[in-house]
Amino acid sequence: MCREGEKRGWVVGITGASGSIYGVRLIEVLLQQGYPVHMVVSNAGWRVLSEELGWSVGKREQMLNEKFGILPGQLHYHPIADIGATIASGSFQVEGMVIAPCSMGTLSAVAHGSSDNLMTRAADVMLKEGRTLVLVPRETPLHAIHLENMLKLARLGVRIIPAMPAFYFHPRTIDDLVDFQVGKILDSLRVEHDLFTRWDGGQAAARMSKEE
User: What region holds the Flavoprotein domain (predicted)?
Assistant: First the structure.
């Protein structure tokens, strides 16, 4: 149980889909705001972290400490095979879970109730306990099975937030695009942030155009 005034944590999963930076940035922002974060990474997810972000897979604990150790929130890393971890039980209190990015394989497993590892088990717990579950699919093009699985989950109340950055706020860097996506996830979690400029009827774009 959480003590009075203490924030409940979030579970963040990172799979082998491209876009591991989304999950990393989400964890960073949640920790910056003092939330406990329970992190789960699939085996393929670790490979993508290595390929896309240059993380050393052989030094996982060291990498996590270097990236997140100085932030105020507390990071709890759970190996994907640890099916007895706290987050595998509905009696363990967390606000909800985000899988970012979410591979089509993991999305399919969640849609069909296949809980053969800690990531899919934790997602199944969110469904059965009626907690927030957000999936950030990153795949293109999508075929009918992908779309049917997303529709099935959406009907169960799962928030599907595809990795689709916007351009109305005039992003200048890749970080801007990442922050927009993470900001949309945080909006769904009802977590306050200032990661991107919200639409104001085009006034911000007009001001930027004049400044240029």
Answer: 10-188
CA 203 vs. chain centroid, Å, equals 31
85 DSSP 8-state letter: S
154 is in an annotated binding site: no
For residue 2, what pLDDT band results from cuts at 50, 70 and 90? very low
pTM, two decimals, is: 0.91
17 is in an annotated binding site: yes
Does the annotation flag 42 for ligand binding? yes
Q: Is 73 annotated as a binding residue?
A: no
On whether 50 is known to bind a ligand per the annotation, the reply is no
- pLDDT at residue 28, rounded to an integer: 97
Q: What is the pLDDT of residues 125-172, one digit of tens each?
A: 999 999 999 999 999 999 999 999 999 999 999 999 999 989 988 999
- Determine contact, residues 180/151, Cβ cutoff 8 Å: no
- The annotation status of 34 as a binding-site residue, yes or no, is no
Task: Answer yes or no: is 184 a known binding residue.
Answer: yes
pLDDT value of position 61? 87
Residues facing residue 13 across a β-bridge: 40, 99
104 carries a ligand binding annotation: yes
Structure tokens at 197: 């400029």
Q: Given 3.40.50.1010, 3.40.50.1950, 3.30.70.590, 3.10.580.10, which CATH number is that of 9-211?
A: 3.40.50.1950
Domain boundary assignment for the chain: 9-211
